[in-house]
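Response to reviewer comment R2.3. The reviewers asked that we include at least one raw input/output pair. We reproduce the pair for Glycosyl transferase here without editing.
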Amino acid sequence: MHKLSVVIPCYNEEKTLAAVVAKVLSADTAGLELEVIIVDDCSSDGSAAIAQDLSHADPRLRVHSHATNQGKGAALRTGFAAASGDLVIVQDADQEYDPADYVKLLGPILDGTADVVYGSRFLERDATEVHFLLHGLANRFLTSLSNLMTGLKLTDMETCYKLVPKALLERLTITENRFGIEPEITAKLAHMLPKPRIVEVAISYVNRSYDDGKKIGWKDGISTIRCIFKFSLMR
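Raw output as returned:
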């Protein structure tokens, strides 16, 4: 393993993007070379300009832009295709997830005890302690349903922090354009042969409200249920 690619999907995150990128660029990557790919999903604020300015200031950072807003899943497909690292991780641009956790996520892969690592917000805390009550209960339900359909024993299927080798990502045909990409990736990894070893490590997390710009909503929850069944049954 020589390089870590960090893919940052971005839509209207001008208030937080620069701070997140600064944390990513200064994160401990356990000696791996770092590559950062921002995918601007046709933001209507100043995010695209900020991303370009950041890329001009650091050669490790590249920007890809969508001409129309397509959703997080579509942005991740663009980022995954552009990634040149041995390992790929997603970093949301909203400061909920802390890049200081990268070194913990990398550990199990680098020491040979895992093929894929999920960063769990709930491994050491209940979902309702991390999220607002309804959000926490919904997340717990969706993860339990996903586990039932995949045979996994995850505590946080919906986590942004999924550290996956590029070689495995290239074997996944990802189709979801929005937040359904989370159960899609999980189901397709679970049913892959030979089965990759998926482990979880505890991560930190700071929840933000809809007033702060949170975008996932109840319709995405319904879509997630659909995706759990769709991608678990479609083998």
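The mean pLDDT is 92. The longest strand covers residues 3-10. Further pairs are available on request from the corresponding author.
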